[in-house]
Amino acid sequence: MSGSVQVTQKLQHQRHQQQQQHHYESSCHLSTKSSVSRQSFSTYKTSSRRLQTTVKTEKGKEVVKLSPLPKRAKRTYLAMDTDKEVIGYVVPVFRASHDVVRGLAEAQEEDVTEEGINYVAMRNLFVREAREAMEVRVEKRTRTTHIRESAERMELGRTMEEWAEFRKKMNPDSLTHRPEFIVKPRGQTVWEGKTVKLHCTVAGWPKPKIAWYKNNVLIDAKAHPEKYAIESNYNMHSLEIKNCDFIDTAQYHVSALNVKGEVSSVATIVVKRFQEGKEAGPLDPKPHGFCAEHGVTFETTIIDKFEVAFGHEGETLSLGCTVIVHPVVKKYQPEVVWYRNSVPLKPSKWVHTHWSGERATVTLVHLNKEDEGMYTLRVNTKSGFDTYSAYVFVQDADVEVEGVPVAPLDVRCYDANKDYVVVTWKQPAVEGNSSILGYYIDRCEVGTHHWAQCNDAPVKYARFPVTGLVEGRSYIFRVRALNKEGVSRPSRVSEAVVAVDPSDRARLRAGPSAPFTGMIKFTEEDSTAGVVPGEPCDVVVTEATKSYVVLAWKPPVQRGHEGVMYYIEKCISGTDIWQRVNTGMPVKSPRFALFDLAEGKSYSFRVRCCNSAGVGEASVPTGDITVGDKLDLPSAPGIPVATRNTDTSVVVFWGASQVKHLVGYYIEYTVVGTDKWIPCNNKPVKQTRFVCHGLTTGTNCVFRVKAVNAAGYSQSSSNSDAVVVQAAISIPGKPTGVSLVEAVKDYMVLAWTAPANTGGADIRGYFVDYRTVKGDVVGKWHEMNHKALTTTSYKAENLKENVFYQFQVRAMNMAGVSKASLASAALECKEWTITVAGAPVGLHVLEVRDTSVVILWEPPAFNGRTPVNGYYLDVKKASAGEEGWKAAHEKANKMKYMKVTGLKAGTSYVFRVRAQNLAGVGKPSAVLGPILAQTHPGNKEIYVDIDDDGVISMIFECSDMKEGSEFVWSKNYQTITDTSRLTIITEKGKSRAIFNSPSLEDLGIFSCVVTNTDGISSSYTLTEEGLKRLLDISHDHKFPVIPFKSEMAMELLEKGRVRFWTQVEKCTSACQVEYVFNDLIITGGQKYTLNFDKSTGIIEMFMDSLEVTDEGTFTFNLVDGKAKGTTSLVLIGDEFRELQKKSEFQRAEWVRKQGPHFVEYLGFTVTQECNVLLKCKIGNVRPETEIIWSKDSIEIAEDDDDAQKIERKDGDLTFNIGKISKADAGIYGVILKDDRGKDKSTFNLTDAGYQAVMNELFRVIANSSAEITVISTEHGIILSSMVTYYNDELRVGWLHKDAKIATSERVKSGVTGEQLWLKINEPTEKDKGKYTMDIFDGKDGVKRVFDLTGKAWEEAFEEFQRLKAAAIAERNRARVVGGLPDVVAIQEGKSLNLTGNVWGEPVPEVSWTKNDRELVSDERYKLKFEHGKFASITITAVTTADSGKYALLVKNKYGKEAGEFTVSVYNPEEEENKEEKKG
């Protein structure tokens, strides 16, 4: 692809005496040839002070321009000799990443006449040893031909040098050098959805490692293969970015690294979007013509429509409809478009649309409040369009902290500049437990996950300027709300915005440029280097709030090409002191936000421009600006008016709020009787009408509205009048199925089906119209009845015989008259001759449940020749064909109703009825249905209630009552008019049918229907058995019995007292009790104490003791109004005598406890340490109470040893026997006595008592045993377990494989201290298996099991073998067992003979060493080893040289050992001389 590029470049030349500046334009034609073509130059001389340059292209165009002399020039490109004569040109080599001219050379002579020679050198990159060049033909008349030829020769030489240098760097065999970019990546601009590729070529040795970065973040292509692809081949490297999105706009760095260093290069990728013009509305005409067929009219039908939907934030919601387009044309598909609030939806990460050819769906991923609104599906065809709409409500996600506000919504970015953007949002519907104090704005650079807060203090205004952005980078923003309870969750992030100049943004959004013309145009303008920029203009205040002021201005006209930045200054009104606001860093954008201004004060502002040349003059100051909100809060909306809509929705209207820049309205409601306000919408709406969905049917609601703009919320409007949530009443639907049921000479009987939609009110009647039909000519419609009909049939009289008529029917309710039904077929008025009955009429349904319905009908208007004697009901699923009809019963039903059971919940059914007479079965009725088998959510069942007076009544309740709704009771589905059997009382939503005198006459099916509802009804079948049960309950209510929680019971108390008691479930304060014993009434007195606590219902009677005369029956008779109750307790015979003995014992116990006594008698316990304690618990003791211990009736005195074992702690006495033995056996006793009495307790620690103590001891020992462990020794394997204590009488048995182990020399068991063990000497494979230690615990025994198999056996056996081998080695190891002294002192000249005893098996090897050097047997040292046991050394005539450290070394295969000793040889004479010298 090619394009046209405008390039502007500076041309400056240097002279020794003066400076001139030349401007020129040149047009170059690019060629794709592989070599440089001939270049033709011509020069000419001129005496003018200005140079005229003409560049001629192959197309014959010429561009002529006079260039002024430059003020200063750069270095010349002329090649000169030592005499400064021009001999040629130095041609610079330029590198670039695209085929454009990157360097120019020009020269001027130094003599009086000025001559200029311009030379354009162009060169392409070296890429994989191939070059592409440009064919340029430039014609200049400035100098002689030999100068040009000299320049060509120099260029060729320089080119060859550069080529050689490049080859050297690309050769891996050359010396190491740091990386260098031969070709740098080139910045590109692409359209969204395209793929872009960055290339670079890198030289360096060792071969550099390449890494790519996006905005300084490393790109991991392996982690994101669907987005990035990185390739490296032969020093050429590329980064491919697939399916570019707007967020891919960034700076891309490539880094090359080796051991010599690192270099990097950067390229900018800009992703453009196509022009974002005004979107077409849903009603705007759409282009058609997708179908090649002509003359086809498409009819579009939308079915399976989505309803009003509710979702929570974070959920995924799908909406869908089935679209039927008729006729079907091959390869033609309609255009399916989704809208939200009349704005077309574009697919994004939040919105997914799908069209399967039949069904259109839109999926909202991760719902947010921004997704709330009216969703419309529009289907465009060649013949027009069809639409369907429904509202989607999005509820806030649950807050993390109770009382905090919910998240703001609809965050957007405006007025983006190089370092500045304005962020706006909408306030949430719910402020939390307190008002919102302000908002925090966060920003995040695209490609990172770090969020930075933009404002330190919360801002109240829903609009905030964000400064400090980095030019060229993309950002996203979010907002959080703050109140006293905390901070809300963040909002959904905004769309990404790039911090660039608006002019650059406009250029990026422009469409693709024109096709490449093969021409590159270079333009040079006057240099502005060193020029101070002018002053900005039109400085204005665009926004002013309490928190900030935003300034805007236009850049200066004189600003140069290097760009300008700005300083902002402020001045308090009334002063002349200007203060610079941004001293530290000038801003790049012609926008600036000033914070920290004093509210209420007035300021003026001005702006200065600056560049590298300096700071320009200040702009004209603004007028005085007072800091404060310029936007007022909205006024409260008008009083809302709420009207009924559907069973779950209400329409709310209100007066508009008087406010500027209205964002919208929030509607709230509350249920009457509560103070909790619930938002109806979570996204503000701008209309003054809103349908509030999701309400509960039957609730009484009040509504209010508040307006919102950027400044905040208005005051809430006044509350609306309360409105009940229920469907609004409308005219009914059209009747259906107008048919003829009987015809005679002058009249016809018509029947029809009531409309399915009653309009929310009962059908009050029908009107029938007729007209005559003669062939194809029809007459006018005429009314047949002026008074509304109450049935679904009508006898049309005064007709003419053999004339054809058509009929239509209209229904009427309290809202009005419906549209007419479809006209019937042309019916001839003539007498029928049919013998069977006609079709039943008036089919309708009641009591619709999940598995059953009740069908009712009226008899046919025409009975046939004989009366109707029964009916047949047919049923089928609505989706089945005609063959799906099935009879609901076998025998004819004589009733005009029937309950159909066995239906499947959620399935639709249709029904029909046929009448029967003696002639046969007639035609079926009109089909009723479809009827959905599903219980209405608000439908309850009739239940029976019996009050305290025994009155039986049936009750039916309805929570969906509407205006005009009534309860209609029926028996056997005939409306009850006779009030002699039933009395009906209705209060609000509850109706009670009271039986006046229940009897067998009342048997039957009682039903109740609530009119003006969605078929709410129920029935109750009263059978003979049910009636008897109800009469029994009624009798119990008429003649009540006082219920008892418990019958009369008896218990013994302290002192042997007897308590008779019972408890009634409930009683009144008038309840009376009569106490009776053997038919004699008892009164309170010395013998009897009576008590009745009416609050708890407990009745008590106390007797101090039981005597012989108290044997008999005790009775409590209760009377509470008309309720009575009796309970009795019989005490006679053995039961009475046993109770009497217990009473006497209790009394004796009480007497005993009056003095010192034993609360717990003497017993024993065994501690975990296996100590035996005799213990008892005493009570009612005094300091003077004597406590005497005895054993075998011998008192234990204080000086006895056993007295130390006695301990008293509070009321506990213990005798610590310790570790028990048979010597401790005996009878132990304790006596308590003082002046109040005496008590004694003994414990027999002999025979059975002793054995019981031992059994308990054995139990403690057995339970203290640890798990069996295994230990290996040199002799075998030991299994052992530790116990806390061991007693000789304890029986311990060992089992191997559940068989008792017999003691032998090889296998032994025993006890060592507290260790129980089993030793297995020299174990073999037969010893593997399960070992069990059985410890007697006084009952069954405690078992400890160890499985000596597998790994346990292998490890134990290996350890045994190792220890056994080590023991053998230790026994047979070579060693010196004695005979050698530690030190030997011997006189010089004496003989030394030492013998060492040696042991070892096999016989060890023997050697002697002196000072770690081995000795050899010779004349001086005689070494002997005799009998394998004795090793000797003999030194004859020792000298002082024989002194030293000697060792006897023994060694065999099991080890070695050294017996060391020291020999000291002394001379007596020398010793004496030493002594003398000391003396």
Molecular structure report:
The protein has 7 helices and 111 strands. It has 1479 residues and is mainly beta. Strands 56, 57, 58, 60, 61 and 62 form a 6-stranded antiparallel sheet that branches. The protein has a 5-stranded mixed sheet with strand order 12-19-18-14-15, with no helix packed on it. A hairpin with a 2-residue loop joins strand 106 and strand 107 (1413-1414). It is flat and about 175 Å long. Mean pLDDT is 82; it is low at 1-141, 276-294 and 510-528.
Index terms:
five-stranded mixed beta sheet, six-stranded antiparallel beta sheet, 7 helices, 1479 residues, mainly beta, disordered N terminus, single chain
What is this structure's SSE topology?
Elements: E1 5-8, E2 26-29, E3 51-56, E4 62-67, E5 78-80, E6 86-89, E7 104-108, E8 116-120, E9 126-127, E10 130-131, H1 145-170, E11 177-183, E12 188-191, E13 196-205, E14 209-214, E15 217-218, E16 228-233, E17 236-241, E18 250-258, E19 261-272, E20 299-303, E21 309-312, E22 317-326, E23 335-340, E24 343-344, E25 351-355, E26 359-364, E27 373-381, E28 384-395, E29 409-414, E30 420-426, E31 438-445, E32 451-453, E33 463-467, E34 474-483, E35 486-487, E36 497-498, H2 502-509, E37 519-523, E38 537-544, E39 548-554, E40 565-572, E41 579-580, E42 591-595, E43 602-611, E44 614-618, E45 625-626, E46 641-646, E47 649-653, E48 662-671, E49 678-679, E50 689-692, E51 700-709, E52 712-713, E53 723-724, E54 736-743, E55 748-753, E56 765-774, E57 777-778, E58 782-783, E59 793-796, E60 804-813, E61 816-817, E62 827-828, E63 841-846, E64 853-858, E65 870-877, E66 886-887, E67 897-900, E68 908-917, E69 920-924, E70 928-932, E71 943-946, E72 952-957, E73 967-971, E74 974-975, E75 982-987, E76 990-995, E77 1004-1010, E78 1017-1022, ...
Parallel strand pairs: 1-37, 12-19, 21-28, 104-111
Antiparallel strand pairs: 2-37, 3-4, 5-6, 7-8, 9-10, 11-13, 13-17, 14-15, 14-18, 16-17, 18-19, 20-22, 22-26, 23-24, 23-27, 25-26, 27-28, 29-30, 30-33, 31-32, 31-34, 34-35, 34-36, 38-39, 39-42, 40-41, 40-43, 43-44, 43-45, 46-47, 47-50, 48-49, 48-51, 51-52, 51-53, 54-55, 55-59, 56-57, 56-58, 56-60, ...
